[in-house]
C-alpha cells in the first residue's frame, strides 16, 4: 500500500480503532479523563507561577523548584498505587488516589507560606504520579489489540488536553485570583472520581478466556493477583534489569523535552514576547491541539514500527525548534508551536504502548509503566528549574529574562538524546502478545524454556508443566484432556 493510500485510509482506520463496545468506551473515557484532570491540576502551577511567587514573597525560580518537588515525588505514587492495582485490581486504588489528589489540589489554594506550598505540592505529586501507570494499563488491557496504538496515543495526550484546560481556566478566571484555579481544579476532580466508581474493571483478556473455555490455562486473569508481587518483581529485575534502565532513560528524554518546552513556555510568552493572557491562551490551545492530533497519528503509525516511527518524528523536531521561539507575533508563534507539538505528540504518543509491550512480566504492568515513566519525570524535573534560573540570571539587553534562548539550548540537547535513545531501542524485548500471558506465573509463558506447545490440528497438543513435571495432553479428535506423568514420576 502506497503512502497516498495510507493517508486516504487514515480517517477510516482511526474510526475502526475507536469502534469499541460500551464497556471499552467507558474505560477509555474514564482513563483519559483521569489522566487529563491530573495533568490539568499539575499545569495550574506553571500558569500561576508569577502570581504565586508574588503572594508568597519569593522569586519565581523558587516556585519552579516547588514544581520540581512535585515531579520528584511522582515515582513514589507510581510505585505504591501501581503495586496495589497489579495485585488487587485497577478500580479501588485509582478511586482512592483521585480523592487524595482532589484534597491536595484544594489545599494548594489555601497555603500562606512557601514551606506549606512545597509540602502540599510534594503530596500532590505522589497522587499525580499514580495516575499514569494505572490508567494506561487499564485502558490498554480493555481495548482490542489493533486499537491500542491509537488509544495509547490519545490517552497519552491527556497531559496536553490538561494543559489546554488549565490555560483556559487561567484566562476565564483571571479576575478571581490564582487560588480560585485550585478550588475549581479540586471540584473537577470529583467528576473523575464519579466516572471511575461507575466504570467496571474490564479486559479483553478475560473476554477471550470466556470465549475459549478449552484454553490450557483457564485461571488467567489480567488483574487481581494470586502470586505475590515481590516474586514477579524479583524475576523481572533479575532477568531483565537492562529494560528497566532503558525505559527510564527513554522516558527521561521524552519528559525533559516535554517539560523543557512546555513548563516555561507560558512565562516566555508572557514576559519575553509580551503577550496578553488572551493571546497566550490562544497560542497554548493551538499548540496542544497539535499535540493531540500528533498523538493519534503517531499511535496509529507505530503499528508499522514502534522504534522508527517515533524516531522519525523526533528527528523532525530539530528543524522545527526555532519556529517555537523566534517569531515575535502570536499568530506566527501559534503556527510554529502547532507543528512542533504535532511531532512531539506523535513521538511520545507511542510510549504508553511501548512500556506495556516491553514490560518483562505481565503481572507488574501497572507498576512497571508508572514507575519507569515517573522516574524519567524525576530525572527531567530539573529542566524547568534550570531554565527559570538561567533565564533570570541571563537576561536580554532590556533586562527581561531570556527564557527563549535557554529553551532553545536545553530542548535542542534533549532532541538529540531522545533520537539516540530511540535508535537504540531493543526490539527483541517487544512482546505484541502480552495480553495472552498469565500474570500469575513466576516465569512468563513466552520465555519459559521448559514449555513447548504444538498447534497442529488433528494431532495431540502438549504442554510441559514445569511445576509438577506432568504432561497435559489434549486429543483434538476426541475433545478430551488427560494428564500423563513424566517418566521420572512413574
Overall description:
By secondary structure, the protein is mainly alpha-helical. The protein has two domains: 20-211 and 218-436, Up-down Bundle (Growth Hormone, Chain: A); 449-489, no CATH class. Helices cover 69% and strands 3% of the residues. It has helices at 3-17, 22-56, 60-88, 91-108, 114-140, 148-156, 158-172, 178-198, 204-211, 229-262, 265-272, 277-301, 308-325, 330-348, 351-357, 365-380, 382-393, 403-423; strands spanning 460-464, 471-475, 480-484. It has a three-stranded antiparallel beta sheet with strand order 1-2-3, with no helix packed on it. Strand 1 (460-464) and strand 2 form a beta hairpin. Helix 7 runs antiparallel to helix 12 and helix 10 (229-262) runs antiparallel to helix 18 (403-423). The N and C termini lie far apart (57 Å). Residues 208-221 and 450-490 have low confidence and may be disordered.
Amino acid at each position: 500500500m502506497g503512502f497516498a493510500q495510507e493517508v486516504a485510509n487514515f480517517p477510516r482506520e482511526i474510526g475502526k480503532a475507536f469502534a469499541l463496545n460500551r464497556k471499552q468506551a467507558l474505560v477509555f473515557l474514564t482513563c483519559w479523563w483521569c489522566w487529563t484532570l491530573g495533568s490539568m491540576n499539575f499545569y495550574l502551577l506553571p500558569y500561576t507561577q508569577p502570581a504565586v511567587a508574588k503572594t508568597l514573597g519569593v522569586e519565581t525560580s523558587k516556585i519552579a523548584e516547588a514544581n520540581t518537588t512535585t515531579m520528584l515525588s511522582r515515582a513514589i505514587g507510581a510505585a505504591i498505587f501501581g503495586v496495589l492495582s497489579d495485585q488487587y485490581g485497577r478500580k479501588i486504588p485509582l478511586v482512592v488516589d483521585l480523592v487524595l489528589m482532589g484534597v491536595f489540589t484544594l489545599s494548594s489554594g489555601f497555603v500562606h507560606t512557601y514551606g506549606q506550598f512545597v509540602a502540599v505540592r510534594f503530596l500532590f505529586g505522589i497522587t499525580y504520579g499514580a495516575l499514569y501507570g494505572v490508567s494506561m494499563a487499564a485502558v490498554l488491557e480493555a481495548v482490542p489489540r489493533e486499537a491500542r496504538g491509537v488509544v495509547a496515543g490519545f490517552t497519552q495526550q491527556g497531559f496536553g488536553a490538561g494543559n489546554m484546560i488549565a490555560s483556559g481556566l487561567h484566562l476565564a478566571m483571571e479576575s478571581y485570583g490564582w487560588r480560585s484555579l485550585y478550588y475549581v481544579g479540586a471540584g473537577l476532580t470529583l467528576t473523575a472520581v464519579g466516572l471511575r466508581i461507575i466504570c467496571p474493571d474490564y479486559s479483553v483478556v478475560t473476554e477471550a478466556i470466556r470465549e475459549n473455555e478449552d484454553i490450557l490455562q483457564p485461571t488467567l486473569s489480567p488483574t487481581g493477583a494470586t502470586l505475590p508481587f515481590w516474586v514477579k518483581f524479583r524475576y523481572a529485575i533479575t532477568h531483565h534489569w537492562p529494560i528497566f534502565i532503558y525505559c527510564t532513560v527513554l522516558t527521561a528524554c521524552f519528559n525533559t523535552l516535554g517539560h523543557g518546552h512546555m513548563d516555561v513556555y507560558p512565562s516566555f510568552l508572557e514576559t519575553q514576547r509580551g503577550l496578553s493572557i488572551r493571546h497566550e491562551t490562544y497560542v497554548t490551545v493551538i499548540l496542544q491541539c497539535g499535540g493531540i492530533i500528533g498523538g493519534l497519528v503517531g499511535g496509529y503509525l507505530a503499528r508499522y514500527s514502534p522504534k522508527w516511527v517515533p524516531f522519525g518524528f523526533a528527528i523532525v523536531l530539530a528543524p522545527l525548534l526555532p519556529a517555537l521561539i523566534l517569531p515575535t507575533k502570536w499568530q506566527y508563534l501559534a503556527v510554529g508551536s502547532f507543528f512542533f507539538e504535532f511531532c512531539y505528540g506523535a513521538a511520545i504518543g507511542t510510549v504508553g504502548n511501548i512500556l506495556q509491550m516491553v514490560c518483562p512480566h505481565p503481572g507488574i504492568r501497572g507498576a512497571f509503566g508508572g514507575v519507569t515513566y515517573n522516574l524519567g519525570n524525576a530525572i527531567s524535573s530539573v529542566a524547568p528549574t534550570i531554565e527559570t534560573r538561567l533565564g533570570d540570571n541571563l537576561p536580554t539587553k532590556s533586562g527581561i529574562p531570556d527564557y527563549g534562548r535557554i529553551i532553545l539550548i536545553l530542548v535542542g540537547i534533549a532532541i538529540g538524546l531522545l533520537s539516540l535513545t530511540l535508535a537504540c531501542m531493543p526490539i527483541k524485548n517487544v512482546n505484541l502478545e502480552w495480553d495472552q500471558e498469565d500474570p500469575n506465573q513466576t516465569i512468563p509463558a513466552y520465555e519459559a524454556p521448559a514449555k513447548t506447545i504444538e498447534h497442529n490440528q488433528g494431532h495431540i497438543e502438549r504442554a510441559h508443566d514445569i511445576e509438577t513435571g506432568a504432561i497435559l495432553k489434549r486429543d483434538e479428535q476426541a475433545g478430551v484432556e488427560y494428564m500423563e506423568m513424566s517418566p521420572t514420576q512413574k
